[in-house]
Q: What sequence folds into this?
């Protein structure tokens, strides 16, 4: 799936990923390829991106919104 993590200042990540874990306000959300459409508010925490080579990268965010649609995840982070 295509993943973009964007802050007001810059783009933190743009690329393909196998899995992403985000800190939803009601708990952690795991997002894989072909996930159902979703919009969720995010709380302060860690976004974990597993790329297509199984390399894991983490990003700390202070909240935001995640949208999944058509095999694309966009995270608008603070």
A:
């Amino acid at each position: 799936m295509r993943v973009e993590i964007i802050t007001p200042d810059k783009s933190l990540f743009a690329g393909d990923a196998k899995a992403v874990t985000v800190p939803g306000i009601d708990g952690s959300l795991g997002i894989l390829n072909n996930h159902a459409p979703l919009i969720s508010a995010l709380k302060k925490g860690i976004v974990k991106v597993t790329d297509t080579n199984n390399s894991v990268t983490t990003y700390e965010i202070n909240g935001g919104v995640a949208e999944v649609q058509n095999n694309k995840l966009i995270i608008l982070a603070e």
Residues 1 and 71 are 5 Å apart (CA to CA). The radius of gyration is 11 Å. Strands lie at 2-6, 11-24, 27-32, 38-51, 56-69, 72-77.
